[in-house]
Specification:
Blueprint lengths: L1 H13 L1 H6 L2 H17 L2 H16 L5 H14 L6 H14 L3 H5 L2
Helix pairs in contact: 1-3, 1-5, 4-6, 5-6
């Protein structure tokens, strides 16, 4: 939905950590690609996505990148409220990123 894309764009542009290394357009393009792959793909696609999140964790000494990624995901998912199924996915993302879901969600 357009509302989710707009929320994603706002969240990306406001996230200094991500916007210093990449343009908002680059990040948005990559996220769109990943979301499309996940929606169309099956378990192997999700497994690859989770592997990439785990790779971020391995390169994220202080957890700031993982936190930034989860905050963006939370902002987008929170349009209309986060449903139980969405929360389960967000918690899995947090686990793969090595950040505490409850702590980040409370920000």
């Amino acid at each position: 939905p357009d509302e989710e894309k707009e929320a994603k764009a706002r969240a990306i542009k406001s996230e200094a950590l991500l916007s210093t290394g990449f343009s908002a357009a680059e990040i948005e393009r990559e996220l769109d690609k990943r979301f499309d792959e996940i929606e169309k793909g099956g378990r192997s696609t999700r497994a690859q996505f989770y592997k990439e999140l785990a790779d971020v964790k391995g390169k994220d000494g202080d957890g700031s990148k993982g936190t930034a990624i989860l905050l963006i995901a939370l902002d987008v998912a929170d349009i209309g409220g986060i449903e139980a199924q969405e929360e389960a996915v967000l918690r899995e993302i947090a686990t793969k990123l090595g950040v505490n879901y409850d702590t980040v969600a409370a920000i």
